[in-house]
Structures are given as structure tokens and as C-alpha cells.
Design goal:
- This protein is α/β, with parallel strands linked by helices and 116 residues long.
- It has a single domain, classed as Transcription Regulator spoIIAA (2-Layer Sandwich), CATH 3.30.750.24.
- It is built from 4 helices and 4 strands, in the order ββαβαβαα.
- Helix 1 links the parallel strand 2 and strand 3.
- The radius of gyration is 13 Å and the shape is globular.
- It starts with 15 loop residues before the first strand and ends in a 6-residue tail after the last helix.
Length: 116
């Protein structure tokens, strides 16, 4: 089981939160709130940082209420960072409008966790 990380609010932007926990070669980056232009740099930095430390990155979207093209861009940037280092990034627990946008753009399929 992964250690329970603290939620961190970057700067004074309370619309989103990013938390990262690492165990061995796996990182979980959990997003909460809204992943839009205001969150893009922080999310991209968190995903790239996780890619530098871990082979597998799980992006947990269970508590994400909104995702726009800027957020999709951050996920793709994180995916590229992981692949460049021989790793992999997966999106898990997407629901509602967030899942629909990921499916509409093809990013949901690209970043889908393979069946066990």
C-alpha cells in the first residue's frame, strides 16, 4: 500500500490540488478539482518529476471534476516524459465529463491501464 500523501495547493490557486506519492518504482499522482490552464504547469511538473523517479506513473483522476485541453496537454507531456525514460504513464479512475473528454480525444485509450 502506498503512503498517504498530503494534499498541496500550489501558490494561491485553490481550484486544483496535486499530490504525489512514490513507492519503489511506482508513483501515484492524484489530481483534485479543476485541471485547466491555471493548473497545467504544476501538473506537468509533477508528472515530469514522477517520470524522473519512477518507471510507472498512475494518474488518479477520481477527485477531478474538470479537465480541459490544457490538462490533456499536461497528461500528454507527462506521457512523453515517461516514455522517453523507458517508463509508462496511465490514467485511472476517470469518470463523468473527464472520462468523456479523455475518450473523445483518444487520450483515454492511449493512457489506459492494461488489463491485469
Amino acid at each position: 500500500m502506498l503512503p498517504r500523501p498530503e494534499w498541496k495547493v500550489p501558490g494561491s490557486m485553490p481550484q486544483y490540488e496535486v499530490r504525489t506519492s512514490v513507492e519503489g518504482s511506482r508513483a501515484v499522482v492524484a489530481l483534485r478539482g479543476e485541471c485547466d490552464l491555471a493548473a497545467r504547469e504544476a501538473v506537468t511538473a509533477a508528472l515530469r518529476g514522477a517520470a524522473e523517479r519512477c518507471d510507472t506513473i498512475l494518474v488518479d483522476l477520481a477527485e477531478l471534476q474538470f479537465l480541459d485541453s490544457s490538462g490533456v496537454h499536461a497528461l500528454i507531456a507527462g506521457h512523453h516524459a515517461a516514455v522517453e525514460r523507458g517508463g509508462r504513464l496511465y490514467v485511472v479512475n476517470a469518470a463523468g465529463e473527464v472520462a468523456r473528454l479523455l475518450d473523445l480525444t483518444g487520450v483515454g485509450e492511449l493512457l489506459r491501464l492494461p488489463p491485469a
